[in-house]
Amino acid sequence: MSFKSDIQIAREANKKPIQEIGAKLGMTSDDLLPYGHDKAKVSQRFIDSVQGNKTGKLILVTAINPTPAGEGKTTTTVGLGDGLNAIGKKAAICIREASLGPCFGMKGGAAGGGYAQVVPMEEMNLHFTGDFHAITSAHNLLAAMIDNHIYWGNELQIDERRVVWRRVMDMNDRALRDIVTSLGGVTNGFPRQTGFDITVASEVMAILCLATSLTDLQKRLGDIIVAYRRDKTPIYARDIKADGAMTVLLKDAMQPNLVQTLENNPAFVHGGPFANIAHGCNSVIATTTALKTADYVVTEAGFGADLGAEKFMNIKCRKAGLAPDCVVLVATVRAMKMNGGVAKADLGAENVAAVQEGCANLGRHIANLKSFGVPVVVAINHFAGDSEAEVQAVGDYVETQGSEAILCKHWAEGSKGTIELATRVAEIADSGASQFAPLYKDDLPLFDKIERIAKRIYRADEVLADQKVRNQLKEWEEAGYGNLPICMAKTQYSFTTDPTRRGAPTGHSVPVREVRLSAGAGFVVVICGEIMTMPGLPRVPSAEAIMLNDLGQIEGLF
What we know:
By secondary structure, this protein is of the alpha/beta class. The protein has three domains: 6-129 and 253-431, P-loop containing nucleotide triphosphate hydrolases (Rossmann fold), CATH 3.40.50; 132-249, Domain 2, N(10)-formyltetrahydrofolate synthetase (2-Layer Sandwich); 446-528, Formyltetrahydrofolate synthetase, domain 3, CATH 3.10.410.10. Helix content is 35%, strand content 19%. Strands 1, 2, 3, 4, 5, 6, 14, 15, 16, 17, 18 and 19 form a twelve-stranded mixed sheet that branches. Strand 1 and strand 2 form a beta hairpin. Helix 7 packs across helix 8 (203-210), helix 13 crosses helix 14 and helix 14 (352-370) runs parallel beside helix 15 (388-400). The protein is globular. It catalyses: (6S)-5,6,7,8-tetrahydrofolate + formate + ATP = (6R)-10-formyltetrahydrofolate + ADP + phosphate. ATP binds at residues 67-74.
């Protein structure tokens, strides 16, 4: 077993030219727009050409609530994709692009780990093909055009107190959460309070990930509500005449990126909304293209199944007409121990009782996922210190929940460590056992949709929302937005809105602080508890350890 760092392993990868990877999915050199030798964008012409193909099987990888012990969702996604190819299946993976915020903050990158990674790891975790920069630019162009419209006479009669379009940047910077712009006198415009969100929370990011074509993209961008008049009628991005230029900036970003795993299997990496403050799934265009070119597609949804998987089912699948054939729920023995009350420093010692105690969190996620009508397999992501008795305890518990658990060693062994999981997942996906249905129908009132998620998924007793929030939801329903799905913005660490409450708590309430209408993306964002749409850096950010070594290579990324 190797204990090399992720970046060392990635640097030693035996990468193949990206044209060879594309050829596995039927792409010619003309179908790819290369960014160097090891990454490329897939042309719209190729995407259009495969629409008549048979649709492959869709496998969703999700996880328990994240803990400091680590779960390994992306690593498992990559390992399962490699495992399916290793048993002779034609498989591709679809994951999200990495945000610079977590890379330089606390969470790290988004390319997997150990011997189950996507490469080139450094580029993927940094600027990659520039998609996030394009999204940031398009978003902020709209912001600049709104302020410019007001400055030059405000023909649309925008109420400056009701400009709802904030600015974004792809960095954790708490100082920008709430700011005042246009100070300094008449020539700088009219001062007003606003703020920044992180790029991955931008509605433009969500739109890029849900749009099916450039035409659809421009329509959705035009549908963004940016402000209101004094009579509360909405102002759209198309009223500002920003949708055309925004589409131009996003023209290349709209095309999915193709890269490869360490085992030279195809991986689509495209889009990157967070799952705690956005909808947490990679792009529809990447997923649907993969499904038309591979027999099995392994994708992931961010954070725990209460956030990412719920949004995958209720937003992405609903909007794109998708249905998962199997769900893989990732858990670790270490995380079970933490949910059972063990401190991070004590995770090395065997503690079967704590594992059993912590399994309640896993059990709730299994039940929630099954409520969507989809078969669930638990992947126990193996750590070197896990004892056989602890692994057995997880397996025994999962059996009592009417599911099955499979030990996976992809981090250390690559595809060899996921052969059993891949074989079983392929069997389930091929069986046609999935009877997928979303949690709620389109015509359910907006507040009732919020309550259904809170009560059925979080097991809350009630949703707390003041009259202002309820009135806002009613106004949106009257304006024709009542059929939209809900995107909950909530801490990823707990079923509750309190990040310190692990396990499977009951008897709690979900306080709604604010609601935001994402009319272009096509959902209502519900901000709960203390969740922030612009994160801050931790006391010791990862950025402090990231540097170039004497050979000019990047060190410290993980």
